[in-house]
Amino acid sequence: MITYALTVVGAFAVVAAVETAGGRDRLADLAGLSRRAPLLSFCMLVFMLSLAGIPPLSGFFAKFYVFVAAAAGAPNLGLLWLVIVAVAASAVSLYYYLQVVKQIYAAEPPPGLLPRPALSAQLAIALLAAAVIALGCAPSLLLSKLSTALQFSAF
Fold first, then answer.
1. CB neighbour class for 123 (10 Å; exposed up to 12, middle 13-18, buried from 19)
2. Residue span of the structural domain in which 85 resides
3. Which of 6, 25, 45, 107 is an S-S bond match for 31, by CB 3.0 to 4.6 Å?
4. Mind spelling out the 3-state secondary structure of 82-122?
C-alpha cells in the first residue's frame, strides 16, 4: 500500500506540475515533456514502470508479494486462477503505461514554448521517485519495519 501510494502520488504530481505550468491534464499535454523537463520526465518513467510492476522498482515487489500471498493463501491452489488473471492484467496495463512514456519521450511537443514546471515541484517529485527506486532496490527497508511492527502488535 505504501509503495503504491508513493507511486500514484508521484504520477499525479507530475500531471499537476505540467498542468500548473500552463498545460492541461490530458495525455497530449505530456508530449515532448522530456525536452523541457528531463528530471520530471525521468520521474514519470519511474512511476509508470513501477505501476506496471517492472523490477527493480517498488511496484514489482508490491505486486509480487500480493501474488504470492494470494497463491499461498488458499489450500489446493484455489486462488491460482486469480493470480493468473492479475498477472495477465498487469501485462495489459503495461501497454497503457507505456503510452504515457511514449508521449513524454517520442511525441513531438506542441507548437509554441510551454513553460517549465517549477523547480521546487520537480525536486519534490524527484524525492518521491527516489523513494520508489530505493524501496524497489532494497525492499527490506520497508519490510523490516513492517515486520517489526507486526511482531510488536502481536504481543
1. exposed
2. 2-154
3. 107
4. HHHHHHHHHHHHHHHHHHHHHHHHCCCCCCCCCCCCCHHHH
